[in-house]
Amino acid sequence: MLKSLLIANRGEIACRIIRTARDMGVRTVAVYSDADAKALHVRSADEAVHIGPSPARESYLVGEKIIAAAKATGAEAIHPGYGFLSENAEFAQSVIDAGLIWVGPKPASIRAMGLKDAAKKLMDAAGVPTTPGYLGDNQDPDFLAEQAANIGYPVLIKAVAGGGGKGMRKVDAPVDFADALVSCKREAAASFGNDVVLLEKWIESPRHIEVQVFGDSHGNVVHLFERDCSLQRRHQKVIEEAPAPGMDEATREAVCGAAVRAAKAVDYEGAGTIEFIADGSEGLRADRIWFMEMNTRLQVEHPVTEEITGVDLVEWQLRVASGEPIPLRQDELSINGWAMEARLYAEDPAKGFLPSTGRLEHLVFGDADRIETGVEQGGAVSPFYDPMIAKIVCHGETRSDAISSLAQAVSETEVWPVRTNAGFLVRALWSDSFVEADLDTGFIARAGDALIPPSEPEDALFDVAARLVQDSTEQARIAGFRLNAAQAHRVTLTSAGETRTVDIAAIGDRVISVGDDTVDCYLPAHTEAAVVTGYVSGDQAILFADGTAYAFDLVARGSGHAAAGSGSILSPMPGKVIAVDVLAGQSVTKGQKLLTLEAMKMEHSLVAPFDGVVAELNASEGAQVQVEALLVRIEAAPE
């Protein structure tokens, strides 16, 4: 067994690896950029090495710095985690050439599966079913448009070097193909340094089924069953579960068997995932499930597999990298219960899920079986990296149990002032389609605004905030005291541009009881009493209802933000304007794209909030903009 390990990553996956390594008695070395100097993974490791400035391309993506850090600290091995250099065959080879142990598959296996077109050809040869499409080298736009027409719309344009939902575009009609191809290639070049794409037939009722595989240097390959990752937004996984609902034993055997064949075809060692696309229109059937790609690393969603199998996949990685065989045979692995994972992101659903960055002044997680995170209260979400705050994982005897536990854990999560998708996750988990396992990758898009929690607090929350202020602050109690007269408890609050004065005595039964930081109350969306949590800080009360945060100012004052109906389009974060789609004076309609902002390696479209005219345009292509910069102002069209 190796004695020391450098983790070439950051955030929650670095913390996850450190935890298992410590349990195994392995000394850990962290690496960090300027932005991560005080990060949790840095403080959790036995030793830490600074590797450069905040941008990943100058730190976490510089293999030479990471190898030098390993040598300087006497680390025997390098674990890449996921993302960054985890699927970079050249880096893996450099680690090996430096005399270090690479905790991952052989470079040749990474290369074989690294490009989606080559991988699909290899799988065809191995007898693994693949989706119809175009995998050729000709990248001429007109030729690709002809191939798309031959395949039949809708089609999916996919970067051959892509991953993580980047470099992918669904195209519904020929008229949209050219623009989608340009956008896809541009994002692929920025994210992966490779703009080559392939085309696939878009499956109308697609489910994303993936199989966890594991191989060792002794020729053994096993699977650890399947996961369903169909709940996605813009090809990014949102909620994952294991096993897949509706998977019968015969189909499971066929799909998992195909995954093992795929791994053996590339002489695979370590943890990997074979991803399949399934046509779920008639349930899960072995003849309607096709290979998509292989991720030659540990997956973000690996905890759900660990929860149903009782296996620590990071421990297996370290053992196999040390030359040991896989700890369990296939017949020793079984499924126990159901597990679900929700990805808690620092993003604002009310603003099109644009990332939200900044200091985590308040961070409290709900009661879950596992919280995988790389941040803590007082830390920060940086604009330089992925905005995931945590993975919230729950296990139950049945799928229904897992849903209930996860929904409660997410609803109890409190984050401020950074915005999160917690309220969105709660609504998704309790939606009828999800509860009934009526799933496909288009579920979130179809549900639309029904999954978006309101950005303005409902009426009852003003009462709750007032009651919390009245009961939680000495200042409010003193202000309401009158000699020889009944106390006058009146609290004036401002939230989302609306100001109200609440008479505490008039609240009545809507607020049942107040604890140290909780309020039992009745909310219109609940059939029973709901628990709203919150706290008072200075002249502001913060409430958390069903995972969504609401701020109430105790003194009417401007927040510095444009009012929701003002038509002012502010930059939600620092970034670069890569496209401007309107001109000053132009008429626009609600939802029309105004410009595209590139930030955190993703493209974000900013759209018109209502019908109107572009009264002010302060953005130009190529310009760098700061957070809350006024980019466009729309004046409403006269009624």
Word description of this protein:
It is globular and about 75 Å long. Strands 14-13-10-11-12-15-22-20 form an eight-stranded antiparallel β-sheet, with helices on both faces. The protein is built from 17 helices and 38 strands. Helix 4 packs antiparallel against helix 5 and helix 12 packs antiparallel against helix 13 (422-430). The chain is α+β, with helices and mostly antiparallel strands. Mean pLDDT is 88; it is low at 474-488 and 556-565. Residues 1-449 form the Biotin carboxylation domain.
Present the secondary structure layout:
Layout: E1 4-7, H1 11-23, E2 27-33, H2 40-44, E3 47-52, H3 63-73, E4 77-79, H4 89-97, E5 101-102, H5 107-114, H6 116-125, E6 133-134, H7 141-151, E7 155-163, E8 166-171, H8 177-192, E9 197-201, E10 206-215, E11 221-233, E12 236-242, H9 249-265, E13 270-279, E14 289-295, H10 302-309, H11 313-321, E15 338-345, E16 347-348, E17 354-355, E18 358-359, E19 362-364, E20 370-373, E21 380-381, E22 388-396, H12 399-411, E23 414-416, H13 422-430, H14 432-435, H15 443-447, H16 459-472, H17 474-479, E24 490-495, E25 498-503, E26 511-514, E27 518-521, E28 530-537, E29 540-545, E30 548-553, E31 568-570, E32 575-580, E33 587-588, E34 593-599, E35 602-607, E36 612-617, E37 624-625, E38 630-636
Helix pairs in contact: 4-5, 12-13
